[in-house]
Amino acid sequence: MSSILIVPIRPVDHAELTALVEPLSSAFELPVSIEESNYIDPSFAFEAYRNQFNSTELISALLNRFTTFDGKILGISTVDFFVPVLTYVFGEAQLDGKVAVLSSFRLREELFGLSPNPKLEHIRILKEAIHELGHTFGLIHCPTPECVMHSSTSAEEIDVKGKNFCEECEQKLGRVTFK
Amino acid sequence: MAEKKTPQSILIVDDELIVRESLTKWFRQDGYRVEAAEDANHALKLMNNGPWDLALLDIKMPGMTGLELQKRLKEIDKNTSVIIITAFASVDSAVQALKEGAFDYVTKPIDPDHLTHLVVNALKQKKLVEENVQLREQILDTSKAYDIVGESQPIKKVLELAKTVAQTDTTVMLRGESGTGKELIARAIHANSARRYFPIIAVNCGAMIESLLESELFGHEKGAFTGAQFRRKGKFELADGGTIFLDEIGTISQKMQVQLLRVIETKQFTRVGGNELISSDFRVICATNRDLEAAVKDGSFREDLYYRLNVFSISIPPLRERRSDIPQLAEYFRDKYANIMHRAINEITPSAMDIMVQYDWPGNVRELENVLERAMVLATPPAIQHTDLPFQLASKAHGLQADSLAAVERAHIEMILQRTGWNISRSADILDIDRVTLYNKIAKYGLKRP
Question: What domains are there in chain B, each with its CATH number?
Answer without folding.
Answer: 9-138 (3.40.50.2300), 153-315 (3.40.50.300), 320-444 (1.10.8.60)
